[in-house]
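ok so I'm stuck.
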Amino acid sequence: MTIPLRPGAGRAARPAPAPTGPDPLAPLLDLPGVADAAEGARTAVDRLLGHRVLRRESAAVSAESALRGARASAALEGVDVPLADLRAGQVGDPVVQGALRVSVGLGSMVETWERAPGQVLARLHVLAAADLAARDDLGRPSGAAGPRLGALFSIITGATTVPAVVLAGVVHGELAALAPFGTQDGVVARAAGRLVGITRGLDPKAVSVPEVGFAELGRPAYDAALEGYRSGGPAGLAGWLVHCCRAAEHGAAEGLAICESLLRG
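replied:
not stuck anymore, here's the structure
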């Protein structure tokens, strides 16, 4: 399996143009620790992107990243399975299978994400929850989620100068906190965060594994940081964004481990 980015997708991935008006996300960089954490994440991912293996085997690294990311995302939903079993196709759990379908489908959504995020989120939910939700509920957010989703879409499709890892944290946090679909929202939220990283130039080759970063930091820490985001207070927002940046660093380290394993053969 892989995240099949279309030819040239890596070259097209770039930060959005500078906003013509006030950037609504710019104040986030003034929160304690956020700017430094974002810089640390960027440095870690850049180190990964410079690995020599990616000059010839980036598709293989992306494939392994997708597999490990799906496993970690499912683990954060409470279904932790051995990677070897997953690689061998021996896991039929619907949560895990949904996470796998999402990982496989991400590449086809890269070009649509910033134009039609609602369409992409609906597709992500169909993939994630196909065996867990009623057919009529697949891809359909609750009506109560509409206003906040609309505001989030304007951020995704708009221009911002904040680092991609910060924007990814906002998208991930908003979707996880809002839980618009009612099933597999965490899987969808983490996939959306990864899409931001791909499309905004943080990880255009999809070779880091941010989901593993969150899993390594632990579910209790993830839940606590997300609760801080839900609170809406400055300390909670800062805590969540710093947590996301640290997960990105861990995810870059996982990508490096994949590169080294391929180098060793």
